[in-house]
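Title: Request for sanity check on Calcineurin-like phosphoesterase domain-containing protein prediction

Description:
We are preparing a figure and want to confirm that the structure record we downloaded matches what your pipeline produces today. Could someone re-run it with the sequence below and paste the raw C-alpha cells into this thread? We only need the C-alpha cell string, no images.
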Amino acid sequence: MRKTSSLRVLTKKSFVCYLAVLLLFWNEMLYPFIHSSLWDTLTEDDGLQAARILIVADPQLIGYQNELPFVGPIARLDSDRYLSLGFFYALRHGRPDLIIFLGDLFDEGVEGSDEEFEWTLERFDKIFASYKSVQKVYVAGDNDIGGEGERVIGWRKDRFARRFPNILSMKDLGLRGVAMDEMNIFNGELRNITVPSGEDKLSIMLSHAPIIRNFGMGARHAADRHSDLILTAHDHTAWSYTRQRSGGSSFERVPIERGTVVEQTIGREQPVLELQSPTCSYRMGVPDMGYGLLTLRRIDDEADGTKLQVQARYTVLWLPGRYPQMCSYLVLVVWLMILAAHRVLYAGLRSIVLTRNKNVKQNIV
C-alpha cells in the first residue's frame, strides 16, 4: 500500500512541477549564492589597506561559426549567463580596485568577422559590467589576436587595442613605485602598461601564456626586465610557479586547489612568483572554474623608501560546476518523458480494456 502511494506521489503533475521549480531555483539562484558566501575574503590581519585585484582569465565567449545553428543560440545564452552570474558574485565579494582580463576574451576572435567581433564585444560589455570607478586592464590572448597555430597579425592587435584600451594608475592603487608591463610570448613583444618612471622599483608582468615554465620561448625577455610578480592564464587551470633569481631556468610548480591561499613577499631580493589563474568558463573542458583574487600591499623596509617590497596574497574564487546542474536537468527531462510515455501507454491500454469489456457485454446481451 505504501509503495502504491509513493508511486502515485512521484507521478503526480503537481509534484513534478514543484520539483522542477525547486531544482531551477536551487541551481540558478540559491546554490550560487551559498557557494559564493564560502569564498575567502583575503582580509589583511593587521588592518592595513591593500589593493584588491580581480583576475578574469579565458572567458572565451562563444562565437557564431563553430556551433551548430540550432544549438548556438542556446549555448551562447547559457554560457553568457554563467559568466555573468559568476562575475557578479566575484565582483560583489572581491570589491576590486582593479580588474585584469588575462586574454582569450573571445573564442573566435581570430576567425570571426568584424561584424561578429562587434556582436561578441556587445555581449562582453554586458557580461562584465562593473563600477566605473574600478580600473581595468586587458591583455590579448592567442584566440583574440593569434599566436598559437597562427601568427600574430597587426590589424588584429590594433583592433583589440582600440576596443580594449588600458589606462592604469598604480598610484591610485596605493602601489606607487610598482610598474606593470605586458608580454606576448608568442611573438616576444613587450610593452608598458604604466608610464615608465624613475621611481619604479618593482615590476608586475602580465602575460596570457605562462612565462616561467616557458623560459626558452622568448620569456627570457621578462626575466631580463627583472619581473617580480607575473600573472598568467592560458591553460585553464590554477598553478603557482616560483623561480630563484640565481636558479637559471629551474622552478617550482604547485597546483592551487580549493581553500588554498598563496602568500609571498615580492621584491628584487625575493624569488620571482608567477600566479596562473583558471578559466571562468565551463566550456573549456576542465572541472574547476573560477576568478582569481589578488591583494597587494606595499611595504617600505627602510625609512627612506629605497627598498620597496609588496606583500601578495592570492586565492581563487571557485565557481559551481555547470555540467552537474545540466545533468540534473537532463534527469528531470527523462523522468518527464517516462511519465508522459507511461500516461500515454496507460491511457491506450485502458481504452483497449474498456472496448473489450464493452464488446463482451454486447455479446452476452
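Thanks, this matches our download. The chain is about 35% helix and 20% strand.
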